Each structure stands twice: as C-alpha cells, then as structure tokens.
Amino acid sequence: MDAIFLQFLNGLDKGGAYALIALGLTLVFGTLGVVNFAHGALFMLGAFCAVTLRKILTMQKVVLDEENLTAWGTPTEIRTTYVETWFGDFGTQLVNYSVPLAILLAIPVMLVVGVVMERGLIKHFYRRPHAEQILVTFGLAIVLQEIIKHYFGANPIPQPMPSNLAGAADIGVMMGMDPNIIVYPWWRLVYFAFSVIVIGAVFAFLQFTTFGMVVRAGMADRETVGLIGIDIDKRFTAMFGLAAVVAGVAGVMYTPLLPPDYHLGMDFLVLTFVVVVVGGMGSLPGAVLAGFMLGILQSFASMTEIKAIIPGIDQIIIYLVAVIILLVRPRGLLGRKGVMES
What we know:
Blueprint: H1 2-32, H2 39-57, E1 60-69, E2 75-81, H3 82-87, H4 89-96, H5 98-120, H6 130-152, E3 168-170, H7 171-174, E4 183-185, H8 186-208, H9 210-220, H10 222-227, H11 232-254, H12 264-279, H13 284-301, H14 304-309, H15 313-328
Protein name: High-affinity branched-chain amino acid transport system permease protein BraD
Transmembrane segments: 15-34, 97-122, 189-215, 236-256, 268-296, 308-328
Keywords: Amino-acid transport, Cell membrane, Membrane, Transmembrane, Transmembrane helix, Transport
C-alpha cells in the first residue's frame, strides 16, 4: 500500500505540470481557436527565467589575497557573490530562494512574450486552417529553443531548490504510521500545491471577475459579444498573455525537479497536447482532469511490477489511453458537443 500511495503522489506532481501547461493551451484554443505548438516553448522560457535570475544572483566579486599564496605562488582568489556582499545574510537567502523568486521575474517577462507573440504573429492566423497554425507556431518554437541553446548552451542546467525544502516529508507519520514508511520529497509536494493554487486562481478569475465573464461569453459566441460594443480582441490578447504566464511559472517551479535545457518545451509539448485532446479541446476542466489523470496513470505504469508484465508500458500508456478515449468519445472527456466529432 505504501508503494501505491507513493506512486499516486508521483502522479499528482507530474499531473500538475501537465495540467498547468494544458490549461494554457486550452485557454488559447478556447478563446482564439488557435492550435499553439509554441506553448511548450513558453514552459521552457519560464524555466530559463529561473536560470537567468540565479545567474544574476550568483555573480561573484573576486578579490586577490596577497598574503595567502597558492601552491604556484599566486595570490589566493576570494570569491563572494555581490548580493551577499551588499545584503549580508539577506543576500544569502535571496540566492537560496532563487527559484520561487524567479516567479516575480517570469510573470512580467512571460506576459510581454505572450502579448508580442499574439499581436505580432498569432493574430494573422486566426482564420487560417489549423494545419497552418501548427506549422507556424512549431517553427516559432524551434526558433525560441535555438535562441536558448545559443545563449545557455545545450547541456541541462541544474537549479537547486531552497535548502530547507531539499529533504523529504515523512507523510506516514502524519497519517499515524511508523516512521520512514511513506517518505516523499518536500519540493514535489510544494509543486503539487503550487499547481492547485494556480489552477484555482485561473478558474476563479474566469468565473468571478467581469473580465473573465466577458471572455467566457466570447468563447461561447464571439460575434455576439462584439456586436454589443465590447472589444473582445483586447481581452483575448490578455488571455494569450495569461496563458503564457501560466506556462512560464509552471516551468519556473519545475526546474528543481528536471534541470532545464533547450528542448524542455518539446519534451512536454506532445504529451500536453494529448492531455488537451483527451480532456476535450476548449474545455478547461477537461484539461485539468486529464492532466492529473494521465499523470497518475503514467506514474503507476512506471512501477517495476507493471513493467515486468508489460515492458515499456510507461512510455505508451498516455497514448494508449488517448486512443481508447477518442475511439469511444471523440470530443474528449469534457469536450463540447460537436468538437472533433465531425
């Protein structure tokens, strides 16, 4: 039972990443009708916001100590980070918490990137076939990843989590079991909680604000909303920016779990599109439900006992489930009637 519970927890944090990326994809498709194959690149850009902030915070000041010489007779180099020199212990904490602090950098950066993408490129493809949308956004994704590769290199760049969250939580003790029965990394629990908060905030924004209500009305009937004098295009641009922010902050918080590299976005893109299709194109609840469901299934399929029976099942389980669901229900779990059914 403890192994099953641990796999369930693994599925929740993995599903949180799938759900966050799929949520942004669904926002874009539901509002603009655009199939955005560059959305995985936005997840990658968010991750590199964390990399960039840490590089800035760990810039070092080098002082030569003439009194202490190395074995080669040269002065010893004393290296200290600028933020620790300027702010002391507070600077040390800034470096320690560089990953969560990177959210403050990622939000404005990703908002600007999203708005520029939508105004500069995506708006010209609103009424074009989905095949053309896929080609142009996929090309944009390749351009973005090559830019990242040029400036940051091809190798993964590990990002440490805050030191006080580097250990593991003894969940078994919290549930009244003996110590060390169910132990799980703190940061994975943090990521799951973070994903739930972000998803809840997006749904609350759409459900309870006037802006969100207008957007939902525009998703249902764009022409009617425009006829009553509302500039729905500006609101849809803002939603594209919001989708970019959601993908970006998801990437930021995922960096301690998976060191980011230039093809991080592509690694998640295909899986996330499967999540969106399974949940139902344009269905926000469907994207979240499918994200967590497929994350949990993939986690259980990676168990040694399961792979011993069906080798490689962990690599194909998501696609297998997608095929079955789409054969039975082409519009997905919670998709609108008529979508992908013709």
